[in-house]
Write a structure and sequence with these properties.
- This protein is an alpha+beta fold.
- It contains 12 helices and 17 strands.
- The protein has a 6-stranded mixed sheet, sandwiched between helices.
- The longest helix is centred in the C-terminal third of the chain and has 25 residues.
- The chain binds adenosine-5'-diphosphate (ADP) and magnesium ion (MG).
- Magnesium ion binds next to loops.
Length: 345
């Protein structure tokens, strides 16, 4: 027994998110938490920066440098860049914590419903980045474990994970996903709607970082108790000159609602497809919202209103998946059944 524990003690959980990549090290907690962004020189294909440094370059780079997100839709859309990004984070981990790094076993969260080819791409990226063995776990299950939902019991649980590029809605019971839906719209689309709002209403153009800040500060899915506003600087599309305007949460919400409604609809259709016994468990325990996108103000209220179910927000929505992957590592015996092995080709 002790030997097995020892073997597992240096192992890591990874959340390869469309927006953020997190790495959890057993016994140490979340050690890496950086944007899934890679800045590349388009001419030479050299990688110039990875993670936070690369995200800071978005919208500020000269023409030949491109800030790429290798996991745009939640799967590995660019294998080579993903591999180099993982390698970079693993190397960083190794440099900062040399003792914990000895070709670890790795548990990686992947979106539910990805193809065998995509699963193998993630496995290969992890292996060539230095993992001794790679296990995969479906993200909604990892998120649910991270939120301490009783996924391995016969009680039904529902999780809605709203990330940057994807939203995953899943009902789970007995360690498996019973019904699920995956949307390729989430927080990033909300950010785009902020940009559209500024363009349509004020004829100004703003960058992605500014738009994301506006969304985080005054974005909402349901009327706020008090209307919020903030001043924003951008470029006037008519004169080409800088311009400052004041934006309001009420007006902004109209632009956010298209995406928000799509997410709420996905929750409702998933509930409609859920077996009655499990619906009754979910009515009892509530729907759990997680992922960075779930931090949009009053989203919980709207989902509650639309589904007539109790809705709770995860304590640490940006870390649910990686924490879940970590908990699975720490208690392999209880969670063995929910790890995925890819089929031999
Ligand atoms: P992923 O798992 O796809 O990497 P995350 O769970 O890390 O995604 O969530 C990232 C998304 O959450 C981004 O679109 C980001 O703008 C959004 N987000 C983060 N904080 C907030 C907030 N306070 N309010 C609204 N959206 C937020
Ligand atoms: Mg995620």
């Amino acid at each position: 027994m002790r030997k097995i524990k020892q073997l597992w003690s240096h192992d890591v959980g990874v959340d390869l998110g469309t927006a953020n990549t997190l790495v959890y090290v057993r016994g140490q907690g979340v050690i890496i938490d950086e944007p899934s962004v890679v800045a590349i020189n388009k001419t030479t294909k050299d990688i110039i920066a990875i993670g936070s440094e690369a995200k800071d370059m978005i919208g500020k780079t000269p023409a030949q440098i491109q800030a790429a997100r290798p996991l745009v839709d939640g799967v590995v859309s660019d294998f080579e860049i993903t591999e180099r990004m993982l390698k970079f984070f693993f190397t960083k981990l190794h440099k900062e914590h040399p003792v914990i790094w000895q070709r670890p076993r790795v548990v990686v969260g992947i979106p539910s419903g990805v193809t065998e080819v995509e699963k193998r791409a993630v496995e290969n990226a992890s292996t060539s980045a230095g993992a001794r063995e790679t296990y995969l776990i479906e993200e909604p299950l990892a998120a649910a474990v991270g939120c301490r939902l009783p996924v391995t019991s016969s009680t039904g649980s529902m999780i809605v994970d709203i990330g940057g590029g994807t939203t995953e809605v899943a009902v789970m019971s007995l360690g498996g996903i019973v019904v699920s839906r995956s949307l390729r719209t989430a927080g990033d689309e909300l950010t785009e709607s902020v940009m559209q709002y500024l363009r349509d209403e004020f004829s100004i153009s703003i960058g992605e970082r500014t738009a994301e800040n506006i969304k985080i500060k005054i974005g909402s899915a349901h009327p706020l108790k008090k209307v919020q506003s903030m001043s924003v600087r951008g470029r006037d599309l008519i004169t080409g000159m800088p311009k400052e305007v004041t934006v309001s949460s009420d007006q902004l919400r109209m632009y956010l609602m298209k995406t928000v409604r799509g997410i709420v609809e996905a929750v409702k259709t998933t509930l409609e497809e859920t077996p009655p016994e499990l619906v009754s468990d979910i009515m009892e325990n509530g729907i759990v919202l997680t992922g960075g996108g779930s931090l949009l103000q009053n989203l919980d209220l709207l989902v509650e209103q639309e589904t007539k179910m109790k809705v709770t927000k995860a304590d640490d929505p940006l870390q649910s998946v990686v924490r879940g992957a970590g908990l699975v590592l720490e208690d392999r015996e209880s969670f063995d059944a929910i790890l995925i092995t890819t089929e031999e080709s």
